[in-house]
Every structure is written in C-alpha cells, then in structure tokens.
Amino acid sequence: MVSESGRKMKRIKIWQSYALALLLVAIFTNLGLAQNNPIEDFSFKVQISSSFNKQESIIDLQEKFGLTEEVIELLDKNSYKYAIGNFSTYSQAAAHRDKFIANTGNKKAFIIAVKSGKILTNWTRNDVGIIKPPDTDIANYIVEAQVSEDTVETMPNKQSDSFDIESLNDQKILKKNSSNYGPFPINIVQRISDFIEINFTSSKIILLAVICILLFLFSFTILIILLFIRNIIKNRQEKQIKHYREYYQNILTQYLFSDKPEESIPHEFHGRKNSLEKEALITEMLLLHKTLSGEIKKIIQTLYLELALHSYSMKKLESKKWHVKAQGINELSQMNVNSSTNSIVRMLDSDNEIIRMESQCAIVNLHKSNPFSFLDHLKHPLTEWEKLNIHYLTENAKAKIPQFKNWLNTENDSLIIFCLQMIALYKQNDALDEVEKLFTNTNEEVRKNAYIAADKIGVDSLSDALKEKYADEEVENRLKIIKALGNMSDYSNLDFMENKLQNETDFATRLKLASSILKYGRKGKTILSNYLSSNDSDVQRIVNHVLDNRI
Amino acid sequence: MALFEILQSFLNTLFFIFGFVIVLSYIILSLVSYFALRKYVKKSSFTVYDRLTSSPFAPGVSVIAPAYNESKTIIENIRALMSLYYQDYEVIIVNDGSKDDSLEKVIEHYKMVKVDYAVNYQLESKKIKGIYKSTDKSFSKLLLLDKENGGKADALNAGINISNKDLFVVIDVDSIIEHDALQKLVKPFLEEKDEKILATGSVIRVANSCEVDHGKIVNVRFPKQLLAQFQTLEYNRAFLMGRMAWGKLNGLLLISGAIGMFDKACVISAGGYNTQTVGEDMELIVRMRRYMEDKREKYKVIYIPDPLCWTEVPTKLKVLERQRNRWTRGTIETLTMHKKLFFNPKYGVMGMFGYPYWFFFEWLAPIVELFGITYFLILSIMGQANWPFFFLMLAFIYSFAISFSIWSIVYGGMSFNRYKSNSDFIRQILTAIIEPIIYHPFIIYFAVKGNIDYFRGVKSWGKMDREGFQSKTKIKS
After folding, report:
1. pLDDT value at B232 more than 50
2. Which of A29, A511, A550 sits opposite B133 (nearest CB)?
3. Is A497:A516 a contact under the CB 8 Å cutoff?
4. Which of A138, A148, A253, B251 is 20–30 Å from B176 (CA)?
C-alpha cells in the first residue's frame, strides 16, 4: 500500500515529466518553425525612406511612390526606416531596388539586411557570397547569397543610423503607424510596451542583464573568497587574542597575589605592545577589576596608570567612531581615571545614545561625592534604559545618594520621573511635600510615579490627597493610588476602598482594591469575607482569589 | 493589432516591471539591513544585559506558552523556561485541551493544585477548566491554565487574561529559548522615549543537528539533512535581510509566533489574537499597528537580529508542505482582512510600502512566477520563444539568488554567527548554489497549493510532526 507522501511524490514526478515533455516539444517545434519564417528570420529589403524621431504615414509613402506592395516600418534606435520587399537573396533585392529607382526616380533607395525584425549594420559581402557582420559575439547568422557583380553594395555606414547588433530578441519590432494603435485602454498598454522597447531596447536590457550577471557572479565569488579569508584571519586573531589574554591573565594573577605587588611591576608588562596586546591586557584588567574587590582593585588601577594605558584609552575619546569613543569612556570610568572627567563631561549631551549613557555612567562612577551633578545640565530626556544603568552603577560604586527632591522642580519630565523613582527606591521621606505637590502635575506619567513614591514612603498623611485624586485618574493611576493606600495604616482608608469595591466596574481595579483591603489584617479579611456570598459574581471570584493564600 | 499580440505586450511589460521591482526591493532591503545590523552589533557590545536581571527598573514579563499534546517534552521545556535569566517574570503554560497526558504530567511533576484564580476576561477564549499553582515555592512563578481546545490564538488570549505583568512573551513550548532572551527582548521597550514599542521579535534559528542538553543548545551545527539546510538559509535571508530592514523602516508586519514580546495593554486594546485565522501572529501585529495609526500615536515594532529562539524545522516534504500551506493561507487571510491598508497613505510606511510589499512579493510572487513559466511554455509551443533571452534571464535570476543567499551568510557572520567551523561554512555555500534549483520549485508549489486551499476554504492548522529535543542528544535531521 502506497503511503500518502509516496503518492504525493509520484504526482509531483508526473507533473515534472509533463513539464519536461512540453519543454522538449517546444524546443523542437521552435527550431522547426524558426527555419520557415522569413519575417522572423533573415531577409533583404529595399529601404525607401527614413525619419528621425518621428513616424511617417505608410499610406502617404505608398501614395508618394505609387506603391501597391506592403511597406514595412522598422525602428532603428530613434529612427524609423521604411522598406519594401522581402527577399532571401541579395540579387533579388537588388533587382527590386533597381526597379523602384526606375519607377520613382528615388536614387536614395538601398538594400538593407534584416534579421528578426532588426536592421543589420556593417555587413559586407565577401567573395564567396557569405554575408556576415564583422566580429561580433552574437549568434551566428551566416547567409549565403547570390551576388551579381554590378550590384555590389554595402550598407551605408552611417553612425547615426546604426546600432550595435546585440539583440537576441525575436520579438517583432514592426512599429505601426500611431493610427494603428488599438482603442483605449489597449493603446495605453501598447504605448507602454513601445516606450520600454524604445528607451530600454532589448539590447539595453540584455546589456544590463549581462552586467548584472557578471556583477553577481563577481560579487559572490569575491564574497566567498573574502569570507574564507575573513574566517581564517578572524580565527587567527581570536587565537592570538586568546593567547595574549591567557598570558596576561597569568601574569596579572601572579602579580596581584604576590607579596607587595606595588613595589615591583614585572618586566612582562613593560615594553612595546601592539594594539591587540594592549586590548587584551586592558580587557583582562577590566575583568579582574570587576570580579575582585578591596585593595586589589586599587592595585589594578595603579598598574593601569603606571603602564600609561590610560593614554591609550584617552586617545579613543578623540576617535570619530562612536563605538571607539564609548569604549574609551568605559575603560577610563572603570579604572577611575579622574583626570578624564572633563573630557567625558563634554560628551554628556552627545547625540549618540551610547556615548551619552556611557558618559552618564562614567560621571556617576568618577564623581562619587557628587555623582548626579550631570542632572543639573541634562538636556536630553532620560530613557528607562539609562536610568537602569545609572541606578546599577550608583549601587555598585556605592556612590553618595543625593536628595533627589532637588530636581523635582525641573522642566524635564523624564528627570522628574527618574527622581521620583529614586525617591521611592531609597525611601527618601524628606521629599514628602514635593511628592504631594506632584499629584497635580499635568503629566500623567509624573503623577503615576508620584503615587508610586507615596506608596514606598508609606506615610499616612498622604492618604487624603491620594483619595482626592482617585476620581480624576484613569485606571492605571488608580491602581497605583489603591496600592499606596493598601500600604498605609490609616483605617479610614478601608471605608473608602470598600466603597470603591462595591461600585467600581473595572475588574483589575476591583482586584487591586480587594488585595489592598486584605493588607489591613484581620479587619480587612473580615470585610472581604462578607463578599464571599455576594450576588456580584465578579466580586465573589475576586475575593476568593485574594483570600486563597496559594496564589 | 491581434489580441494575442496585445496580451503579449501586456504580459511582457508586467513581468519586466514585476521582476525589476522585486530585485530592486531586495537590494534596497539588504542595504538597509546591513547598516541596521552593523549598528546593532556595535551597540550590543556596550550592553550589559545582566544589569536587567535584578534591576527594579526592569518591567515584569509573563511568558505564555500554549501546549497541545506535548507530553514527550513538556517537563523539560517548562524547566528551561523556569531558568531564564530574569528576575520579575512568570511562566504561564496553557494546556489547550491536550488529548494526551500533558496536563497530568505537569501537575504531578511540578506539584500543582487547582486554585481559585479570578480570571479577568478581557479577551474572549474557550472555557477555562482550571488554573493551577505549585505548592512548591521554588516553582512559584509557574501558572498552569487548563482549557477547552480552541487553537493557538485562543490559548494565547486565555493566557493574556491571567497574566499579571505589563509585557508578555509568546513562545512555542517546543522551541528552545536562549537564557537571556527576556533581557534582550525587553531592552528595546526601555530604550525608546518618543515612540511606544508595541512588540519586539528576534531571529529564529534552526535547531536541527544541534546538540541539546537540558533544554539548552550546547553545540551549534549546520543541519545535515538537505531540507533543513535549505530552510536554514531561507530563515537567514528572511530574518537578517528582510525583517531587519523592515524593522528599521518601521514597516514590519510580522513578529514570528515562535517568539515575540508584546505590550499587553496595547494587545488588549487592539482586541487580542484573532482566532479566525491561521496567521494569528501576523494579523495581530497588523491590527495593533492599525490601532495605533488610527489613534495617531507614534509607535514602533522592533526587530533584533539576536538569535534567541531555536526551533526544529520540518525534514519531511509532507510536513513542510503543511507548514507553508498554513503560512500562505495565514498571509492571504491577514492581507484580506486588512485590505484597507493597501496603498493607503493614512497608514504611513505600513500602508504605502509594508502592505504592498507583502501583497505583491510575499503573496503574489509565487503565482506570478508560476504564471510566467506557463506563459513561456505557451510561447515556446507557438514558436515565439526567444531562447537565448530566456537563458540569459534565467542566468540573471540564478546568479542573483545565489548572491542574495551568500550575502545572507555574510550577514549571519557579521551578526551573531553560530556556525564557526569551515565545513559548516562550505556547506552553507553549496546549499546556496543548489537551493534555487532543488528547493525553490517546491516552495512555489506549496505556495500555489496554499492559495488554492485558501480559496477552497481550508481552515485547518495541519499536523506538525516533530522529533523533539531530548537531553544530551543531537536533534535528528
């Protein structure tokens, strides 16, 4: 029994076979058809007129020369050429030309060779009657032609009328007189098609395609080679860096844990180093500086200065590349190079967010006595990411924590929010009055953080102000107010919250109210228990949730 | 002029313009990707993600993982999710009516009991049968939701309803998440000051042939199986050269369902996941973006080139076909639902570029390609085919395709290259060379079939057979 996937594969194979068969039929059919289609293939004609950039009326030409036979229009770059006749031999065309001259007196008529609707240029007859264009790399069209001695003629080699034989396009370039375009909107399509063919003639498309193919082939060949080389170089570099790092790690560890390390710096540290070595050494020093603590940190910093590595880091500040600058700031900051402070301060207002952040963090680290001095001059808004890093460094560097209320009057809302967050984190009760004032700030986010700060400070005197603001706020800020009330100990808040629990419609708010009521101990629990058999199913569910201590 | 000649002119013009625009757009997207990628990699070197781990400034995240019949691997997968490097997060496993013993296994292993959890039904979902919490404090961040079967979108909506955090991450429970995934996905939310971040997504890598130990990738290898190799390249191109660029241009319409972080409030305001489409991931992003555009608020959907999620790709044609069929139907459903965006300047980059790009080059391209081949065959039969020109164009397309793939390998190397060995590198190149010949026709076929199934009204997800990740084993490929 054949599986489903097996049947599917079989079906795919069948379709592929059909497609292959159709393709083969098409190839052979095409070859066959191509031989017997004189219009599509090669012919001699007699050119009787031409017009630059402007079409002539075929009917007018026929009238002018008294012609009953078909006049064909051919496009040759920006010139329209008009020809009669369709002959497979040169002599036949020559005879026809002579007849035309005799009938009309138009001695300017001459023979042209046309292949697949395009006029061939620079073709010549040679002694054995082979007519072919001079050295081109285009497909072979060698045609035998009978030539009569007295009608030898070559195509006039007019540069302005010629075009390079590059077209392999078998599309007919028979341009009709504009009166022969179809009706709207068909004529629009025809005009677009003609426009593409005129301005992006097949030859140009082919040229473009060939260039692109060569470019792609070239690019991916070069890319493959470059990738290989890059891989080799990168692996080698990584090995080298690894070797340097291991080397310096060993020496550093031995040096740092030796007796009186500050008295003798090993000679391995001295001497010229290439940039890879310096980078490896600095990386190891920074790593050890980060992981170790106490006196050893100071020894590492001293070593860094004595080896003049701070000059190497300072040079990075002058780089035009932002990531090199940022790296320099980072190194100088971690190594507590106070002399770099002035250079770093200038970058506090950089447009590049990384440089800005590194500079802020560097100042926090370097100015331990006044780490937040940069806040006085802050122009850009602080992002949450910057705040996170500043807080981390404040904790890590054990920097002096200022009174953040000093910046609560600034016009920079992001700075106010940051200060409120820090007041909340460090429970700065002294900022109580300023925090309360911000309950009426026009910025919703500021008010939200003021409620959070009030929650963390947890002073009952703020209860009334919070309850007053409740009605004016949206859900998100209401949740913060409720949370703050839950962390206070004023029992009058219970009535307020119970009232809201009964009347609120928002589920999340009700859940928060129930949680905050529960924080009031036995009294809160008693209030909530009354709702266990409430008719309000939402309240019932909420109370059950809050009272379930497994959640 | 004969009707056929008019038609010929029209089709020639159409194919020419289509091909020209598609090639040009790929080149532009590649260039945009290159600069965005370079900047991201450099920025990353200055980012100490560990600072997020215990920072009070780091927002809380709910990790929501729908599970259906995942009995084989669910315990390991949950264990991996519980050990992510982040402080304030919860893990919500949504058992979407599994028919096997997934639920029982989790309850037993993680010592879970049913609790009186009050669900905030902000989004519609099928009936919730119970919510479980662990009696063991070390699993306190785990929540298990058991519900009636409703599909992935429905399961996610239920998970959002019980989520307690402001952000949530959607993951496929059978994918492997990098331990620092939450840190990296959260960072864009913290960096932006002017525009609201709706969602962040990341690169998804192919886990086939990689060694896995206790839910972590320990050794990365380029897949051995041919079909997986093709998909690796395909993912590389799509993520590093396509989505990276669209993210930069703020025209990204899709965050993969395998991993993505979302602003919960915005998702709820936009109506949550649509359960009527199989392309719920794309449909949500488009709807969230429309919601913000209609509110005239600035926003961004960010894409980061970090590979944060590893997934097992189909190694059988049948399974691959089901997957691509579903992706095609999902794309068409989303495009149809949001047809108002089409070249609508009111919707900015999304309306004028993102949506039309998906419409023409993600949906219609396989159809146009098939039509082009058919057209040429007809011309050939009629003796009107220009064979030299045909072969030249074929050479052009083939060489472009290989170049594009190799550029994506370069981008992979530039960013967070995991295939370090020379043999993996050579295999990637060889795959790039044979992919257009062997793999691409199948993709066209699957896409066309997806279109047919869409118009036939097929709605199913299709069964995705997976080997699963076992400890200290290679994922078979």
Report:
1. yes
2. A550
3. yes
4. B251
**pLDDT at residue B440 in the model:** 94
B203: which strand partners? B307
Cβ–Cβ contact A204 with B under 8 A: no
Tell me how far apart the alpha carbons of residues B283 and B273 are, in angstroms, rounded to a whole number.
8
DSSP letters of A97-166?
Answer: HHHHHHHH--TT-EEEEEETTEE--S-EE-TTSEEE-SS--SPP--EE----GGG-------GGG---S-
Tokens matching residue B361: 């080059």
Please name the residue that has the structure tokens 């490896």.
A280
Contact yes or no for A202 and B389 at CB 8 A: yes
CB contact under 8 A, A30 and B6: no
Shortest CA gap B387–chain A (Å) = 9
Nearest CA-CA distance, residue A23 and chain B, Å: 7
Q: How much is the pTM?
A: 0.77
Neighboring chain A residues of B113 at a CB cutoff of 8 Å: 550
Comparing B208 with A263, the larger pLDDT belongs to B208
Architecture of the CATH domain A37-185:
2-Layer Sandwich (3.30)
A-chain residue closest to B19, CA distance: A209
pLDDT digits (tens, 9 = 90+) for B336-352: 999 999 999 989 899 99
Interface A-B, measured as beta-carbon pairs within 8 A, has a size of: 182
Q: Where are the domains of chain A?
A: 37-185
Residues of B in contact with A223 (CB under 8 A): 403, 406-407, 410
pLDDT in tens, A424-476: 999 999 999 999 999 999 999 999 999 999 999 888 999 999 999 999 999 99
How confident is the model over A259-278, as pLDDT tens digits?
Answer: 765 566 677 777 767 888 88
Complex ipTM value: 0.88
**Cross-chain residue pair A27–B392, CB shorter than 8 Å:** no
